[in-house]
Amino acid sequence: MVKNERAVNLAKHEAKKRTRSGQAKSYMVALAQLASENGHANWEEYRKVLEASPMPIPDYRVRLVSSNGHDKTVSVLLKDVLTFHGVSADIWEQEPVNEQHQYVNEYALWSRHKLGDFTAYTAAILEANVKTFSFQEVAKEHQQSQAAETADMDFIVELEIPGSGKKETIGVLLSDVLELNGLSQEDWRGSGRLEQGTMVEDAALWSKRSKGDLTRYFTEVIRGFDEGDEENNHPR
């Protein structure tokens, strides 16, 4: 039987988020929390249950071929593509098919990079099952995924592509802002509101650019500071 490694990796990702946000004292404690919350005595027991859970039917299968001819097939879920690119289901439906396939291929390549595989691959879609899925359901899953990702964040930044009307939101942790700028909590408290806002926006942009997205965005912190504070809103 094929193990559902994706379910295990999602649980591990959630544990890392809890550790970063301070919900758990350590990564192992976070894993134990997840196991307990799902009715299991420990992480090892929960991991085995996750591995045995049914694999989701992929919306796409992408073939990756290296320069030496070696190939592998990657399964891709549409909701993961939308989350990765910050695209809503409505915008997705308006995109031409070749643009949709480009989004899928880019996500498939990134999924290998995330695993430490930086081989230069050529990507091509082998199979598309997306027409069998409801876009309303995909949109709902995408919104739930975004809400879950931003729920525990210290700041929410809105990014808008100038002139396009396309917007998305990104959650930012204060700890990531401090790490990115090499600051202590004391340094942060001593910074002005405008400077703090700029650093938060920079962290949001960095999260996009670390994935290869070099698009220019209007940026605005829409949650995390007291209302009435001065705000930034300019292309970056």
Short description:
The protein is an alpha+beta fold and 236 residues long.
Characterise the protein shown here.
With 236 residues, this protein is of the alpha+beta class. The protein has three domains: 5-52; 60-136, no CATH class; 153-235, no CATH class. It has ten helices and seven strands. The strands form two sheets. Strands 5-4-6-7 form a four-stranded antiparallel β-sheet. A three-stranded antiparallel β-sheet has the order 2-1-3. A hairpin with a 4-residue loop joins β1 (60-66) and β2. The longest helix has 18 residues, at 97-114. The mean pLDDT is 81.
Query: What would the principal axes of the Cα set say about the shape?
Result: globular
Compute the CA-based radius of gyration.
Answer: 20 Å
Please state the average pLDDT score.
81
Structural domain tally: 3
The residue fraction in helices comes out at 40-55%
Total number of strands: 7
First-to-last CA distance: 48 Å
The neighbouring-strand order within the major sheet is 5-4-6-7
Q: Beta-strand percentage? A: 15-25%
- Biggest sheet descriptor: 4 strands, antiparallel
- List low-confidence stretches: none
List keywords for this structure.
3 domains; globular; three-stranded antiparallel sheet; 10 helices; 236 residues; alpha+beta; 50% helix
Please render the helix and strand layout as text.
Blueprint: H1 5-21, H2 27-37, H3 43-52, E1 60-66, E2 71-76, H4 78-85, H5 89-94, H6 97-114, E3 121-128, H7 135-151, E4 155-160, E5 167-172, H8 174-181, H9 185-189, H10 193-209, E6 218-223, E7 234-235
Antiparallel strand pairs: 1-2, 1-3, 4-5, 4-6, 6-7
Helix pairs in contact: 1-2, 2-3, 4-7, 8-10
